[in-house]
Amino acid sequence: MNAPTSKSTPTLPQPHHPYKVMALYKFASLPDVEALKSPLAEFCCARGVKGTLILAPEGINGTVAGAPEAIDALAEFLFTSGPFGNRLAGAEVKYSFADTAPFLRMKVRLKPEIVTLRAPQVDPNRQVGTYVEPEDWNGLIERNDVVLVDTRNDYEVGLGTFQRALDPHTSSFVEFKDYVEKNLDPARDKKVAMFCTGGIRCEKASSYLLSQGFEEVFHLKGGILKYLEVTPPEESRFKGECFVFDERVSVGHGLELGSATLCRACRHPLTEADRRHADYHEGISCPHCRDDAAKHEAAAERQRQMDLARQRGLAHMGDAAATDAQQRRQRKKQLADQSRQANKD
C-alpha cells in the first residue's frame, strides 16, 4: 500500500486564536533518533512551542502548540530544513486552534514504538490497509457486509463514536491483539473497517489484521479529527465528542472545543452527566474512581493548593506558576539581604 499523500498545510485558518495546535505522525525509518532528540527539543523550546513529540526508530508522533508563526517554523524544520531531511515528507498533519495554551511544557521522548502494540510482525511502512477519505466513509460503514471497529480505548469510546461501531473495551492499545483473536475471524469477517483519533493506531491495527490473514481492511484517513473537520454536522455519523490528549479534553464538529472535562484524580474524561453524578466532586473524585481513596486524598490536597494559590492571586501550574515561584524566591532573598544589611548597620 502506498503511504498517504497528506500535505503539511493549515486546514483551519482561524488567526484570531492565539495558539495553533499541530498533531502529526509519520511512520518512517529513523535509526538516528538519539541524535535527533536534542536539536528538536532545543528548536521547540527556543520558540515557546509546548507539547509532546515521540521519536522511535519507526517514526514520529505527537501534538504540540504555540504561536502560529512558531508552529509554522516547526513544520518547516520537521519536513524541509531540519535534520530529518525529507524522511517525514507526506506526514499526516492536522492543525487546529485554541484560545488557551493546551500544554504546560515541552517534552521530546524516545520510545521503542510511536504507538505501542508490541507486535514485531507489524510494519506499517511495508503493509497497511486501504485508506478511506472522510467523504467516502459514510458510504462504507453503512454497508451490511462491513464490520466496523473502534480501535480506541474504552474511556475514549465513552465520549463518542460512530454509529454501529464495535467497542473492543480495551484500556490500552496493546490489548487490541487479544480483542482481534477472541472476536474477529478472517474466514467470517471479510471486510473490516477501523477508525481512531488521528489515524495512527489504525495504521498499525490494519497492518496487524493483514498479518493475521484478513483480506480487506479499511481505515479512516486522518481519523475522527479529519472527519469532524470536513464533514457537515447534518451528514455526520459520529455521535458525541472526540477525546484528545491535551487540556482541551475533547472536540466536536469543526474541531470546536467540546464540553468534556478531566477528573483530576483519575484523569478520566467526564461528560456533563458524569459531572451531575452524586459521586462527582470537582477536582477530587468522579463516578469512575469513587472507590479509590488514595487518588481522592492526593487530588484533594492538589485542589487545596490550587484554591490557596487562587486566593493569593498566584498560578499553580505551568510557566505562570514557575514565574510566581521565582518571584517569591527573589522577594525572600531581597528581604533576607535587607535584614542582613540592617543588622550590620
From TrEMBL:
UniProt-listed GO biological process terms: tRNA modification
Basic and acidic residues bias locations: 297-310
Catalytic activity: uridine(34) in tRNA + AH2 + O2 = 5-hydroxyuridine(34) in tRNA + A + H2O
Gene3D superfamilies: 3.30.70.100, Rhodanese-like domain
Swiss-Prot/TrEMBL keywords: Oxidoreductase, tRNA processing
SUPFAM superfamilies: Rhodanese/Cell cycle control phosphatase (SSF52821)
PANTHER family, alphabetized: RHODANESE-LIKE DOMAIN-CONTAINING PROTEIN 7-RELATED, THIOSULFATE SULFURTRANSFERASE/RHODANESE-LIKE DOMAIN-CONTAINING PROTEIN 2
Protein name (database record): tRNA uridine(34) hydroxylase
The species this protein was found in: Devosia ureilytica
Underlying gene: trhO
